Amino acid sequence: MRTSSSNKRCAVALLLACIGTAQAQQRPVPPIAPSSVPAAPASTNAPAQDSVDGTGDPLFDALTCRSGPDIGRLLPRLRRERPGDFVQTERQYSDPPMDLYRLETPVRAWGHESDAVVITASRVLMVVGGSADDVARVLEASLADSETPLSGPLDDLHALVLYTEERPGLQQRVLIGCEYRFPDLSLLEDPDDAWRKAPAP
Question: DSSP class of residue 110?
Answer without folding.
Answer: T
